[in-house]
Amino acid sequence: MAFTIYKQSEPMDCGPTCLRMVAKHYGKRYTPKALKELTRLTDYGTSVLHLREAAEKIGFNTLAASVTFEELDNETPLPCIVLWNKNHFVVIPPQDYSPDKPGSKIQIADPERGLMRVDKATFLRSWTEDGEKGVVLMLEPISEE
To answer: Where is the Peptidase C39 domain positioned along the sequence (predicted)?
Structure first.
């Protein structure tokens, strides 16, 4: 199943658009307007905290953390939302990235640019703050038993 990519309609609505992509992956449909309200979108965008709170309101268990690339690659459920270049949100969709495979690229669903593939060095430059760890918002749907 292909991962659905939505484009942001305004310069600062990358966060709600990323949440919309993850929700769609799990069969949940929300309007951009509803997600903008839930994420408390302002002229300056939204925060990881507000994204997390909105995700929990629409039925996700969440965990926001600063993790290493190895933790992201090996332990983080995908799709997830990451902070990109300190001022933008993108989604890391499920993918076939293999760090051991030469030339392997990491897929990124960017609500501004669409689907991109970047090498690990480019990914680390854009995702990590200190070259070691980056911010990730992990989301898993709450199971309805």
So the answer is: 8-134
For residue 79, whether the previous peptide bond is cis, meaning omega lies within 30 degrees of 0, is: yes
Give the CA angle between residues 133, 114, 53 to the nearest 5°.
55
Task: Collect all residues with Cβ–Cβ distance below 8 Å to 47 and sequence separation of at least 6.
Answer: 15
Residue type, 94: P
The domain in which residue 61 lies consists of 13-141
C-alpha torsion 48→106→125→102, nearest 10:
160
Handedness of CA 79, 54, 124, 67 (dihedral sign): negative
* CA-only gyration radius of the chain, Å: 14
Residue 124 identity (one-letter amino acid): L
Asked, for residue 25, whether it belongs to a domain, the answer is: yes
- Strands 80-84 and 88-92, bridge-based pairing: antiparallel
Tally of domains within the chain: 1
